[in-house]
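Record 1 of the preview.
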Amino acid sequence: MLIASQISTLACMTHSRRSDCPLACTLDLVGDRWTLLVLRDLFLGKHRYEEFLGSPENISTNVLADRLKRLEALGMLERRPYGNHRKRMHYSLTERGRSLGPVLQAIVEWGLENLAGTERFPAWHVQSPELEEDHQ
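->
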């Protein structure tokens, strides 16, 4: 269920559309340089801020914080505190975020077939909702 701030963010993005084309609208949400990589890392089983920072693309801390907030506002991931520190968060995909799994998988397959020297991450797979819940 979306909270008020998420609905507000989605409504704002609806009003700033370039067009009604679903591809253009989707790219407006996840088509920047980093967002799909953060989603990829969630599918790879990363859940904590430090884990995202360990990815080979070397995302900066300010960009990572921004993308995590954006994905949460879009209802694609959720966060909850873990451990004894209320500022340490555990991030996980929502149903909406998991629904992008086949799209990411298709991009991975295209890259493997068309870009020489690319390799599949050893743990790459599109998790089902049941598997995602087991990892929480």
